[in-house]
Design goal:
Length: 653
């Protein structure tokens, strides 16, 4: 391990007990983790505030963050131009990640329909019909294959359409869409938007921060309502729409007497194919012949959340635990595809003789074994991974130390299931949710999402923020690494209603749901958009998403994808608070535009706080402001509707 100035105390790094144990072990083993480097390498104070530009060779130019209007770049670019351009490029990168992932899912869908991929088939024909109907594709009396081909053609436009609006704008509440049209930000295909974003932020092009912001929103909307939404829909159609399932979370899901394989990344195909290989009797025999009781497949990060939501597969933890889990010595193979895969995972894996395999042609790691996953024969790759894992199991030489922590939680709340759960079996509806918001039992809805970051104590802000929110009767929807944090903290079980305020607790107890609903991976933030549209459609809470008593937060974010997500929520009408850091210079016009003025145009706006209690206060204040505007800001006592009442309410919606 590199000599570090001073090792940071483990209790200041994480609130995840398993990760803490493994950090301590890594230090004994002399293995450096990213927490140590985050401590050693201070964030660049100018870059942190996005006050530098390297878009041409007349620079790089840096602004004075303490007096931002003191100087301009060599070309004359102001701090507002520089920060807006940098922000735009982060949104372009985040949008590219989600849309490229979504496009890969759509290609898989196409090849499943035309019979070129035989290992997968359409698992949810009902969702195929529902999505098609929402896009005005005729379904009645038609063969599934015919509908699917039409849906493929329609959705391809989400990525490639040169001009005109993307198909999913049909799902946007009319008033929200009207705001976008007025501002000229209804997205075309993502390829076009990302291209234009990159062009406009090149040296000497768009140098008006307000005009740049329009393209920032348009690009982000091509992600949320475009690439991400298509990814979620197609993945549900192919692999099944999630419904609540009891799952296990944390490093204790690793088993000393089994072949442990961790799958980490984002495209569900790798883990779905791993499941096929792991269920193959030949593979299982190979494992038992090697002395193992079984093959233990475990997910991490978003791949893990995808498969946890659909199949209840165990999950070992979030982004900040992916190195730490290798320190257990119990991981026989870690296999990865795309996004959020730290380059040093390979090095840490080497320290513990763990087989480390990249599988996607877009994401290789120098020195690491690459076994390409071809979707036309995916198990060829995943069988090889199992063989490598079994070989490592047979030759285990490192001591094994598995933290014995396992939390149980109920996850897999698709927006379809929320509707069904609230409205009853025959006619699902968001009516009871809206009613409980109107009568004040539920104060509002919050999306708490996003990453963990080694510069922010792991899981702490996620858990503290969510506890504050539910205590104040705010129903919490979750995705991404935040969801793993809350699951580990035991807040995704129905019993967690005991920590909620009286109103929310009563609703949760009646329905039998937790106050914290896990909706899946980061692309599944699109489920929150659909749920919000449905709340507007059902009525009583205003005409646009901006009218809803709702807020979003990513308290420990790190990825450009989180910025793209935040911006598509802001552009859709949601107040979004980010924690830990924000790439903007305080006191500038661009900051004022994004943090204050944007709301006046009918959008949401950004907020920032570095402490979870402040974040909760800001979100609750916003929710109350929206309740006030709707004229529902009085708490009334109300007897909760019985299942019978809810059904009849559903029928009127
Ligand atoms: O897309 S929450 S650390 S794993 S970026 Fe990454 Fe952030 Fe986790 Fe999934 Ni999302
Ligand atoms: Fe400097 Fe302008 Fe070039 Fe940016 S584009 S590096 S601000 S000269």
């Amino acid at each position: 391990m590199a000599k570090l100035k001073e090792l940071i105390k483990v209790e200041d790094i994480t609130t995840c007990d398993s990760t803490a144990q493994m950090i301590t072990k890594a230090r004994k083993d002399g293995v450096e983790l990213f927490f140590d480097r985050a401590n050693e390498m201070k964030a660049c104070p100018i870059g942190e505030q996005s006050a530098c530009c390297k878009h041409c060779a007349m620079g790089p130019c840096r602004m004075n963050v303490n007096s931002p209007y003191d100087r301009v770049g060599v070309c004359g670019a102001t701090v507002d131009t520089i920060a807006a351009r940098n922000f735009g490029r982060m949104v372009a990168a985040g949008t590219a990640a989600h849309t490229d992932h979504g496009m890969a899912m759509l290609e898989l869908f196409r090849d499943v329909i035309n019979g070129k991929v035989k290992d997968f088939k359409i698992q949810d024909p009902q969702k195929l019909r529902e999505v098609s109907e929402a896009l005005d594709i005729k379904t009645e009396g038609r063969e599934l294959k015919e509908i699917a081909l039409d849906l493929y053609k329609e959705l391809e436009r989400t990525y490639t359409q040169v001009d005109g609006e993307i198909p999913n704008v049909k799902r946007v509440p009319p008033k929200t869409l009207e705001t976008w049209r007025k501002e000229g930000i209804v997205p075309r295909g993502a390829m076009r938007e990302i291209m234009e974003m990159m062009h406009r932020t090149a040296m000497g092009v768009d140098q008006d921060y307000e005009n740049i912001t329009k393209q920032i929103s348009r690009t982000a909307l091509a992600d949320g309502w475009g690439g991400s939404m298509v990814s979620t829909d197609i993945t549900d159609i192919l692999f099944g729409t999630p419904a609540p399932v009891l799952v296990e979370m944390d490093m204790g899901v690793l088993k000393e007497d089994q072949v442990n394989i961790i799958v980490h990344g984002h495209e569900p195909i790798l883990l779905e194919a791993m499941m096929i290989s792991a269920a193959d009797p030949e593979m299982q025999k190979m494992a038992t012949d090697a002395g193992a009781k079984a093959i233990n497949l475990v997910g991490m990060c978003c791949s893990g959340l995808d498969v946890l939501s659909r199949h209840g597969l165990p999950h070992a933890g979030n982004f900040s635990s992916t190195e730490a889990v290798l320190v257990t010595g119990a991981v026989d193979a870690m296999t990865v595809d795309i996004q959020c895969i730290k380059q040093d995972l390979f090095k840490v894996a080497q320290c513990y003789d763990t087989a480390f395999i990249t599988t996607n042609y877009r994401a290789k790691i120098e020195g690491a074994t690459h076994i390409a996953l071809d979707e036309h024969d995916p198990t060829d790759c995943t069988d090889q991974i199992i063989i490598k894992a079994v070989t490592r199991f047979k030759n285990r030489s490192k001591p094994i130390d598995i933290p014995q922590n396992v939390a149980r939680g109920v996850h897999g709340f698709s927006h379809e299931y929320i509707k069904y759960m609230l409205g009853g079996a025959y006619r699902g509806s968001y009516r009871p949710l809206n009613d409980n918001i109107i009568n004040g039992k539920i104060r509002g809805v919050a999306g708490v999402v996003g990453c963990t970051n080694p510069r922010s104590k792991q899981d702490f802000s996620h858990v503290e923020l969510v506890k504050e929110l539910i205590k104040n009767d705010v129903l919490v929807l979750q995705t991404g690494c935040s969801q793993s944090a809350l699951a580990k903290a035991g807040l995704t079980v129905p019993g967690a209603a005991a920590l909620a305020g009286n109103g929310l607790a009563e609703v949760c107890e009646t329905v039998g749901m937790p106050p914290v609903l896990g909706l899946g991976s980061c692309v599944d933030n699109s489920r929150i958009l659909v749920a919000a549209s449905e709340m507007v459609r059902v009525g009583g809470l205003g005409d646009s998403i901006a009218d809803l008593p709702a807020a979003g937060c990513a308290p420990e974010w790190m990825s450009e994808k989180a910025i793209a997500i935040g911006q598509y929520f802001v552009a859709s009408g949601v107040y979004v608070v980010f924690g830990h850091t924000f790439p903007i210079v305080k006191g500038t016009n661009f900051e004022k535009h994004m943090f204050e003025d944007y709301e006046n145009k009918g959008f949401g706006r950004w907020g920032f706080a570095d402490d979870p209690y402040k974040m909760a206060k800001m979100m609750i204040a916003h929710i109350d402001k929206k309740r006030e505007a709707l004229g529902i800001n009085k708490k009334k006592e109300r007897v909760l509707a019985s299942m019978e009442d809810r059904r009849s309410l559903a029928e009127t919606s």
